[in-house]
Amino acid sequence: MFAKITTGSLAAGLINYMDNVKEKDARILIAKGLCAVSHEAICASFEIQASRNHSISEKMLHISLAFSENDGHRTKSDEFMTAFALDYLKRMGWDKTQLIIIRHDDHDYDHIHMALNVIGDDGKPLDLKFYKTRSQRTCFKMTKEYGLYFAKDKKNVNRSALKGKDKLKYEIADTAMPLLGKCKSLAEFREALAKKGITTTIVPTRDGNGLGIVYTISDKKFSIGGAKCDKSLKFSALEKVMDVSTDEDVQMFRDGQYVRPEEGKLTERLSDGQDFEPDYGDDFTSGITEISYEYFVREREKNMENNTYFNPSDAFDMSLRNSRQEDSSVASDIAAAAVELATGGTQIAPSSGGGGGNDDEWWERERQRSKQEEVQSQPRRKGRH
Questions:
Q1: Distance between CA atoms of 218 and 145, rounded to whole angstroms?
Q2: Considering only CA atoms, which of 151, 342, 317, 349 is closest in space to residue 235?
Q3: What is the DSSP letter of 2?
């Protein structure tokens, strides 16, 4: 079972998509705390409760739960799907708010869609801290407890059903894994991937005692850590099947050219009166010349609370600071993937799953359309004569 979660500010586009009887063969399984006699009534119900709190703008939560075809003998039951969905919401702490659960029957696999009001019944926002990580753990635990099907390996994944980041992840895995038995060295492995449009970056782990690898599809601005892509593609796994000692980047790290500073000590880079340029989104002004490790940690914890997470060790990584990326967004993607390697996966990309197309794209279209309609509907002010 997989979950995909997105947030948005509009109820209308989401409800029109979810409750599309003609194209999705949709049917409502349960509606809680709202009037479901029409799309207009559903949206009005959401808007009334959302108006109780103006502290946040993204007030709609969309969750799609998708199940394996191997569980069809259980997931065909609406009662099972409803009970499972409510259990999921309770474990996530999202059961005390308005919600509607709708089932779609437009795919071979069973799946449901849930729309939740981010503003709870008590007028306070739901707890969305690290919700992607929490959702992934909840899905894994529930799949195990309910005795649902676990995919054994990537061969069983339906590639044609993949969208967005999941599709790119498997594109990298499908390109890199066949090379494992052919390439005798890491340098040869990286060169072969580069010819196929996939660049690689060697990065240090958080404790400085090991190395990781980040895979990047440059033209699609997508990066992912090796362990997250596939266990066989992480650096420690590559080290077991090929010679990594001849790789220039590996030699640089292991020869001591890169030294991670100890906590409480200033970095050599920033103690020479040199200005720091925040290439990777770090929140520092150009006038700061000396920054302690504790300061980085405090800023990291503060930004994690605001969901603007960065890894302080990136500022210490000379390989990333000195490398020139043609596209700064690609460099940021690599740095973000390095963060996941260093922290063991603090930031987790949305899980695959759900049905009915690319949720992010249609939601963005609806958001832009709504903004245009709002501008057009506003009365024009008369000028002074």
A1: 40
A2: 342
A3: E
Q: Which two tokens stand for residue 371?
A: 């903004």
Q: What is the DSSP letter of 275?
A: P
Condensed to tens digits (0 to 9), the pLDDT of residues 43-96 reads: 999 999 999 998 888 999 999 999 988 888 999 999 999 999 999 999 999 999
Q: Phi/psi of residue 185, each to 5°?
A: -135, 160
User: Percent helix, strand and coil across the chain, each rounded to 5?
Assistant: 45, 15, 40
Q: Full-prediction pTM beyond 0.70? A: no
Task: State the alpha helices, DSSP H only, in the chain.
Answer: 12-18, 21-24, 39-50, 72-75, 78-92, 131-145, 164-176, 186-195, 226-229, 235-241, 248-254, 293-305, 313-316, 318-322, 328-343, 359-377
* CA 116 vs CA 11, 66, 131: distances in Å: 10, 17, 14
Strand pairing category for 60-66 and 2-8: antiparallel
What are the tens digits of pLDDT across the range 329-359? 565 666 666 655 555 543 333 333 333 344 4
